[in-house]
Amino acid sequence: MLKTAFQNELLFTSTIQKGSTGTDVRRVQEWLCLNALRYPNAALSTSLDSEFGPATKRAVQNFQSLLKMPQTGVVSPDLFNKLSTPLATSFQKQPTGAIRKAVVALAQTHLKQRSAELRTNDAQNLGPWVRSYCDGLDGSLFKWCAGFVQSILDQAASNLGRNFTDIMPRTLSCDVLALSGQKNGRLMPSETVRKNPKQIQPGDLFLLRAHTHGATQPTDWFHTGLITAVSGDTIETIEGNTDTQGGSNGTGVYARVRNIQKTTLDVFSIDGL
């Protein structure tokens, strides 16, 4: 794979406990909060303050209890591996079949593992999933929908001995992605897609474009995702950095249904990848 930041998120060689401070404590706190999405009946969420205090210890013990482990409140590399299992499961999956089938299957895996960001009072777009998708970067400036899409394409293509950069530039920008598609003839504008939805195929990308009245060359694309199914005038998608309302700066990976006749939605073809 070209995008390997996820590997850093899985490395953990220390043992930490109450009284510890620093980056490794923050990483444990992040995973406790993310696992709260998977185990909503367990008290796992805690502050992201990089200090292993009594609250973090209690959350660790609660996680250990879920796994029927001794409730020591100590985080070893083995326990961290268990905390970060969703990320490892997603990025280490080996898809089978042709490229489009592989793209859809991998997107579904990330969805099932509850890929999501974290937020604090000061910032959003935080955490190991975001850093994995965004080449080690996170924070409010880094909307991660394009990073999610390219991570899935990278994972699928590399398994077949190919590079996703053969059809698009490596970028976190929807604008850069769309403009490259215009240049290489891969971007089908919304007007064309609406007339012939059969041109869309699972595995293709959609890009939402801001509709500006009277504009002849609109260049404002603000959200992207992967198309998993096509049915008449609707597409099913899996997209990152969205929410239940289909927003462009949400908190997680979601599956959605979108109506191509009611949305200014361009399609980027992955033919030949």
TrEMBL record:
Q: Peptidoglycan binding-like domain: from which residue to which, for each copy?
A: 21-83
Query: What superkingdom does the record give?
Result: Bacteria
* One Pfam family here: PG_binding_1
Name the record gives this protein: Peptidoglycan-binding protein
Which lineage?
Bacteria, Pseudomonadati, Bacteroidota, Cytophagia, Cytophagales
